[in-house]
Amino acid sequence: MRSSNPVFSRRGFSRDNGYAGFNTAAQAGYAQGNPYAQNPYAQQDLQQGAPPQAPAATGRMTMDDVVTRSAITLGTVAVGAALAWILLPVSTTSYGLAFGAAIVAMVLALVQSFKRTPSPALILGYAAFEGVFLGVISEMYNSRWSGAPFQAVLGTMAVSAATLLVYKAGWIRVTARYARIGMAIAMAFIVVMAVNLLLVAFGVAEDGGLRSFGPLGAIVGIIAIVLGAFFLTLDFKQIEDGIAYGAPRSESWLAAFGLTLTLVWIYVEMLRLVAIFSSND
Q1: What's the pLDDT score for residue 58?
Q2: How far, in whole angstroms, is CA 17 from its chain's centroid?
Q3: Confidence at 206, pLDDT banded by 50, 70, 90
Q4: pTM given for the model
C-alpha cells in the first residue's frame, strides 16, 4: 500500500497482502509466508513469524519524535499564517504574494518528496510559505465571512480527532484494498477538479462550476473533506508501521511533513465549506 502523501510513497512505506513494511525488498522469508521478512529494520524471529517490534537500538523513530516534529512543522505554518494575517492587509498585492508563496511551497514540497533523505530545512521552508498562503486567504475569507477561519480550524481539529478515534478503535482497517479504492476515488476527484478549473478559466463553467458557493459546491467540499480523512488514516498507518519497524529517527520529519500536507488540505476545504454555509444563511 502506498500512502496518499508522496513523501511516504517515495520513502518506501508500503503494505502488501494486508501487512506493512518499511523500505521493503522481497526476500525468501516473505515468499515462505512471513510478510515481515522483507523489512530490514524489523527485529523478529523469521522462522516463527513474530509480530513487528521496534528495535531496542537508539536512533529509531518514536511517537514522541513524530509528535515533536509535527508540532514544529505545524507551528511554523501557524506562525507564517499569523504574520501574513497581521502584515499583509487584504489587497491585490497580498493576493499576488499569497499565490507566489503557494507556488514556492509547492516547489519545496515536490523537491522534498523526491529526495531520498528528509531535509528539515525544506520541510520547514514549505511550512513557512504555506503558512503565508494560508494567512492571506484566511484573512480574505474572514473579511467576508467573519469567524470563518476559526470555525475552519475547529472543523479541522474535529475531523482529525474523529478520524484518529475511528482508526485507533479499529473501525477502519487500513488494507491494500482499502488504499487502492480510496486512492482511485481521490485521483478521480483531482482529475475532475482539474477539468473544472480549466472550464472555469476558459469561461465554459460559470460561478466556479463544481466549486461554486451553492449546494453543489457544498457537496464537493464534503467529499474533499472525507478524502482528507481518508488520507489521514493512511498517514496514521504509515507512522504506526514506521515506528513498529524501527524506521530511522529522521523519518519522523517526513511523517510530520505528510501530516501537514493532509491537514492543510482539510483546512482549506473546511474554510470553503464554512463560507458556503455562511453564504446560504
Answers
A1: 61
A2: 24
A3: confident
A4: 0.80
